[in-house]
């Protein structure tokens, strides 16, 4: 009797192992189109697919967000490559190395998503046109943005933590028909679990110092959703040049500072 029980247990163990191997083999052979179908739900469109679910590429990738207040946000990401890490499944999460390349634009980093619904982006290196700032605010911008994000943690569409730095070169903002030229600025991002989340931009000569703070950050179909309290400090020469333009943008003058409460989107 005991021998029969042992044989049954052994049989089911080997059967379960066989099923796991079969599932792993099927996933390994799964086409890249399986990943494309999953990504389409988030607005990521992949074309010209090659490779497999685990390691593949797309000749063209574009991110399309839902229109908001007449703004249709579509961003070309260029050629996209991904490499999933099978060993990460042992810790009940899926991790992948991702890279997207386009002229004057690149994205590289590691993405992990757990069964609990948490997504961790680490070691991100981004280079993109300043026009991508439209994801965060309804503004037209020119220049080049370079970001080094050490870690960004998301729960669903909510940003839990963020840390990183960057630089914006030759930044210019459009105000009606004119442009405000801000030059080169250094960027710093920080935010622990629960906030507050802070961002600062400081020009090379420190004549421009901008700080913003928010208690909560989230991504919606129309881009970043948050309420920002911002403070802009300018040198006297810049105040004389930009005072009227900043008023049109919604800033309120307070001495040598300009304040603005901004709801996004």
UniProtKB/TrEMBL annotation:
Keywords: Cell inner membrane, Cell membrane, Membrane, Protein transport, Transmembrane, Transport. It comes from the Bacteria. The keyword Transport applies. The keyword Flavoprotein does not apply. One of its GO terms (biological process) is protein secretion by the type II secretion system. GO terms for cellular component: plasma membrane; type II protein secretion system complex. It holds the Pfam family T2SSN. It is found in: Cell inner membrane. Belongs to the GSP N family. This is Type II secretion system protein N.
């Amino acid at each position: 009797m005991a021998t029969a029980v042992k044989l049954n247990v052994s049989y089911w163990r080997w059967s379960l192992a066989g099923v796991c191997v079969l599932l792993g083999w099927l996933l390994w052979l799964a086409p890249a189109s399986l990943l494309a179908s999953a990504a389409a739900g988030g607005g990521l469109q992949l074309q010209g697919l090659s490779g497999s679910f685990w390691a593949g590429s797309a000749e063209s990738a574009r991110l399309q967000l839902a229109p908001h207040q007449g703004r249709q946000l579509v961003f070309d990401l260029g050629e996209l490559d991904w490499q999933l890490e099978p060993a990460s499944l042992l810790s009940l999460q899926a991790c992948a190395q991702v890279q997207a390349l386009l002229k004057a634009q690149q994205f590289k980093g590691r993405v992990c998503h757990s069964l609990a619904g948490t997504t961790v982006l680490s070691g991100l290196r981004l280079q993109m046109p300043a026009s991508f700032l439209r994801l965060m605010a309804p503004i037209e911008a020119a220049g080049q943005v370079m970001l080094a994000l050490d870690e960004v943690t998301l729960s669903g569409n909510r940003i839990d933590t963020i840390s990183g730095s960057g630089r914006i070169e030759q930044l210019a903002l459009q105000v009606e028909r004119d442009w405000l030229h801000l030059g080169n600025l250094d960027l710093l991002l920080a935010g622990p679990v629960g906030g507050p989340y802070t961002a600062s931009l400081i020009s090379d000569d420190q004549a421009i110092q901008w700080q913003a703070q928010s208690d909560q950050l989230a991504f919606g179909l129309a881009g970043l959703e948050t309420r920002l309290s911002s403070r802009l400090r300018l040198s006297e020469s810049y105040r004389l040049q930009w005072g009227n333009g900043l008023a049109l943008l919604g800033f309120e003058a307070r001495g040598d500072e300009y304040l603005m409460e901004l709801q996004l989107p």
